[in-house]
Amino acid sequence: MIFLYIDYQAIGQRIKKVRKQKRFTQERLAESLEVSTVYISQVENAKTKLNLEMLVRIAAMLDTDPGYFLTGVSYQTKDYLKSDIALLLQECPPERRQLIIDMAKLIIKHKEIRR
């Protein structure tokens, strides 16, 4: 049997972050979703688990990709991998960084030749 770990704490923190960025209060979000402010607070603080339908509704209300709440990565933005790549490069010794850059250039060049 395969178990999937869902980090409700991280999901709640991301919802709270986006809600505040979009200048929504808990009250306004709750009213829009026809739920209580207590429920929104519990979701944001991982005191209750939200279902997929509610996650999608919250995402729609906050005009955010639902996947962002699950993964912390927004695939809607053009640069969604920049931070991941930067982090990987930071962890590599200098000679490996150059190797990675050289390989990326080869891949890009190969792709351009095939067109």
Give structural notes.
The protein has 115 residues and is an all-alpha fold. The protein has two domains: 8-71, 434 Repressor (Amino-terminal Domain) (Orthogonal Bundle); 82-114. Helices cover 67% and strands 0% of the residues. The protein contains seven helices and no strands. The chain has helices at 8-21, 26-33, 37-44, 52-61, 66-71, 82-91, 94-114. Helix 2 (26-33) crosses helix 3 (37-44). The longest helix has 21 residues, at 94-114. The model has no long low-confidence stretch (mean pLDDT 88).
What's the shape? Answer: elongated
In the CATH hierarchy, the architecture of the largest domain is: Orthogonal Bundle
The overall number of domains is 2
The gyration radius over C-alpha positions equals: 19 Å
Number of H- or I-type helical stretches: 7
Features:
single chain; 115 residues; mainly alpha; 434 Repressor (Amino-terminal Domain); 2 domains; 7 helices; 67% helix; elongated
Brief characterization of the structure:
The protein has 115 residues and is mostly helical. The chain has helices at residues 8-21, 26-33, 37-44, 52-61, 66-71, 82-91, 94-114.
